[in-house]
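Aim 2 progress. For HTH araC/xylS-type domain-containing protein, the working sequence is reproduced below.
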Amino acid sequence: MQDRCNIGLEIKHFTPGSQPKEVETLGVHRDDHYLFFILRNGSASLMVDFNEVHFAESSLYYLLPGQVHQPTRYNMGDGWFVAVDAPLIPPDYRMVFEGQLRLQQLYQLNPQQLEECHNVLTLLENKYNSNEDDAFYLPVIHSLLQSFLGMVATCYCNAIHGSRQLLRPAQLSQQFKKLLTENMRTLKSPSGYAIKLNVSESYLNEALKKTTGLSVSYWIMQEVVLEAKRLLYYSELNTKQIAHNLGYDDHTYFSRLFKRVAGSTPLEFRRHYRK
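Predicted structure tokens for this construct:
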């Protein structure tokens, strides 16, 4: 992000016949910032962490920093692309965006939501493209950005939890997800996460099974193997280097673990997805 702009934000409105530079020039990659997409009409597909995501009209979607992605089909009629540096996203919003253990889902905007997002983004783009020497240029841009981010966070928060305050198991699942993302290279025991969350291991397991249907151990291994897949796909690191990167001194043990979770060896996975 810092290589392309100095205000932590990029925004582009696409109209029929136009196409973003990312689609034209970038293949498989990962970014250090958030990406938000709104598709008013047309269609598109993205490969996100080895899952195909299909966009339809009136859809909203976002990508987290670090997620490996690549456009696989693109026929956008009208839509928006917004890139945002992570420090510009308030912690409460980040909890919504980053707190889900499963891959984030498309959100179908209703006509009012779509129009509201479009209006705010139109104002944001107009200001973004105005004279940077204008008084309060940056504060106004960031204020408009916060309005958009709040609207997106509200959509996802309501979709997942309704308008009610989060129940304790859902809150705990979100807290676990944040800790897991930050600590999965050094902490791999369910008891370790339970200690950090000030709950018993059995209660943490119960909360995750209630909200996701799966155990703490399952999600730890899924996070580790997902990051391994990203490195196998995106980087040129060998299996030993990846194992060490993820906190495993014994790369043969790591390879066995990867095969058990992913169904193939690391090298088989790399050959399959790079062919």
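The chain is about 50% helix and 20% strand. This observation will guide construct design in the next reporting period.
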